[in-house]
Amino acid sequence: MRTFLRSVALITAFAVATRGAGFLFRIILSRILGAELLGVYQIAFSFFMVFLTAIASGLPLVISRMTSTIPGDARYPTKLGQVVRSGLVIAFALAAIIILTTFATSGIIGYLFADARSTRILLFLVPALLGTAVYTVLRAVWWGQKKFFLLGLTELIEQLTRILLFFGLVGLGFLFKDMAIIAALSFTLASLLSALIVLNLFRREQAIPRGPLMDMTETRVILRSAAPITAVRVITSIALPVIAVIIPLRLVAAGWQPAEAVAGFGIAVGMTLPLLSIPQTVISSIATALVPDLASSSSSRDTERTNRQINSCIRATLLINFMLIPAFIAIGPGIGRFLFANEMAGVYLAQSAWIMIPMSLSLITNAILNSLGAETRAMMHYVIGSVALFACVWILPGRIGVGALIVGLGACTSIASVLNIHLISKKTGTGLHIIRGLAGFAVACVPAVIIGRALFDIFDTIPLFFNLAITGSITVGASLAMAYVMNLVDLEHLRIFRKRHRNLTR
What we know:
Layout: H1 2-56, H2 58-68, H3 76-104, H4 106-110, H5 117-125, H6 128-144, H7 148-170, H8 179-205, H9 216-237, H10 239-253, H11 258-276, H12 279-299, H13 303-340, H14 343-352, H15 356-371, H16 375-395, H17 397-400, H18 403-428, H19 434-458, H20 464-485, H21 491-504
Helix pairs in contact: 1-2, 1-5, 1-6, 1-7, 1-8, 1-9, 1-10, 1-11, 1-12, 2-3, 2-6, 2-9, 3-6, 3-9, 5-8, 6-8, 7-8, 9-16, 10-11, 10-16, 11-14, 12-13, 12-15, 13-14, 13-15, 13-19, 13-20, 15-16, 15-18, 16-18, 19-20
């Protein structure tokens, strides 16, 4: 448990720094691009993410598992070298095929986009896959070896590199047709530069003997394990680019202007969803530490430890989300005005804060099932949930506009979470009392929301930043106080956790 808590603390520290920098950059980017151009960029980026998933989903998961099980004896360097070289060859080959295919079929791809600018942006993004092919394999080795410092450090370096390159290229803006091209180019250059940094750190850290470029035995093992995971994840990731095409078309059919429809998509995906993903910064840290740790306890048949880890992670997931939900509901419009100079982004935030719960539960339960070797079932659950997602984005835009995307994501991840939880209980025999926790936290949120809305109106005359800071802090505090009164938060448990965390970080 101490090792696990130390891992979570380390990953969380880097994740907060990385995502905090990325979030600030997204705010700046949204103000520079504007809602419409941000929507054009997000449409292209959603297609790029499908390509990224093909390289950075099944492959790193399998390599991390293989690395975590390599014996620590004289065979270790040789075995590791075979795994690394085979993984790099597979990743590079896949990246090259995707890049060449994208450029060769760019004319056909252009017919899918509502705006031709999205095609140009996509062509500037896809070369980043070459960098991804390098660091997704090397970082997977560190993941399997539980070298979370290197894992977090290189992720932070990539984010900061992207930001610095973007602002450096802004000075050369006259060379480009629009600022979205600069954003795409900075992403690609940061990926390639980060790959060189990771490669240099890896060579310093690992002593791998020379050997053949590809070991066919290891290559077959990697492909056989990674192919089904990658295939399912690519299929599920296709949902977002398809939605990026459907939503603007359905909004136009409902009477929206094309530019207005693209702008609405940009607000929802580029402004509101990043805010809704804030809890996942901490939860993804838990998930990253959980995969190798839970896989180890599961393989050793330590049932008690496995069940304890699962329940603790799910309780933490609920607590983290319900700390933020009341504040988002109470002061969402103000947050949108302050961060993005766009109140609509905040209105969407207040209306859709509830989906943070199924999104986070889906994330943590997916990690648990990955650790238990049931990643394919987890992805199939998401596919089942995607049926509801597509139904919402097809039927609801005429009634609730871009909110159809938010409702669809909530329905999709809710279905996936329920199915994941059922499977976890079945595989581990663990009793997960989630409904009781959800009901209790929901009741605790009500007075916190009322207090937050009242205070936001009372402090309306002071500067918006101070209003948000004061009201948000009090709202979160009220939510925690209500949770304590209702015995949803055990202060003694939190005190022990803080003591352990302090000892681990000394």
